[in-house]
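Quick one, T. Sequence first:
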Amino acid sequence: MKRLTIISLLLSALVVTACPEPTVEVETVPKVPVTTSSKKALKYFLVGQQLADKLRFADARDEFLRAIDEDPQFALAYLYLATNSVSAKEFFSSFKKAVYLADEVSEGERHWILGQDAGNRGKPEEQLAHYEALLDLYPEDERVHNLLGIYYFGRQEYDPAIEHFARAIEIEPTFSQAYNMLGYAKRALGDYEGAEWAFKKYIELIPDEPNPYDSYAELLMKIGRFEESIENYRKALEKNPQFVFSFAGIGNNQMFAGDFEAARATFAELLGRARNNGERRTAHFWTAVSHVFEGDQAGAVAAAKEMAAIAEAEDDFAALSGDANLIGNILLYMGSPGEALSEFRRGVELAEQADVNEDVKENARRNLAYHEARVAIYSGDLAAASEKSDLFRAAAAAVGLPGEMRRSHELDGMLALEAGDPAAALVELEQANAQNPIVLFWMARAAFELADVDKARDLADQAAHFNQLTPNFAFIKSQADRLVEQIAAAE
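Structure tokens:
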């Protein structure tokens, strides 16, 4: 989701004294401190932090750049700059600087930065250890609980996530960000009533900001209330005409309703209002997705290549690697697995050229086996698929990342189904990513082959009406619709 790539890095802190001599930290309440040697940098940082909390990323980025201008050794400003970056290249370069400076700040800030660094490197246990140490130091900091909530949210462990969001709200009932994340956690559990309460409370707390309306609109879109969703996205744009997320939301509602021309007009408007290359790439990305929904492979690839051209002009190899994987997925799910394989392999080559740490590069190498296994499955070569799946399972187990373990179960489930064992397939797929409509579709197929019509109907309906901001929905929508019809005809 759009929040997690950015929000998961956000954690507010208490301002401390700033002076031209070595920094003196003065905590007046038990909150995470901020270390800087410049009062002016501190002022810019605070403004940026408030904007970032409200998901006004482009505006926040400007403030963090000003803070760094005043204090080039401002570790948290670099962390927030990474958080609010407009490109993968800027993210990694800013984050590298924050990590470099981590030994020069307070213990709390150091755990915060190094915890995020562990997450970026795919070390979840190390990440959790830093976050729990941070919580031990500042158990009454609502934003530390919010950070832990986001950690568990990303692992799809929604119950502990909700506990931390609720604790954050208990500590500070006006802390709007926790209500936002609480709404998303409730939505993921299918508690739409609870999610609606959280988002409406979010609106009540900061009614003049765009994101509360955007978040509520996303829930309305999920449950198929498209017109109401668009109304709330437009309310967000009334609050801030540059809130680009809402253009993406409006366009997705239009796609889900089958009006692809209107969606592309919305994305063209987003492109026209874009303030930076990150926002321009967003417009091209959703344009590509609109072509996938419509079954237009050539149009989808062309739009994705326009997005990649922006990264290419900036030598942003990390972003280009992701773009190659997107194009690979477009080709794979739209019937060109051989061409898809070339793109997936090109994605690894581009990652090798990126200015990122070795763990990120190793992640790309490791996940190539996942992509190769899917290509083999969709090509009907189950022997090759089994070999690549075994390689990926072993590599994923060695690292222990929950997302990769779910991907391994996804592969094993697909393989079992294609090999004629729907019962084994269902066991595996139930351990895969339940927030992925492609997984739901394969589960529905397995249940249908087992003659469990009720379960098959429910899962196929979930896949066909997933209604979330993800290209995976576009990849599977038409197949899920056909499966719904097939199940209905069999009843």
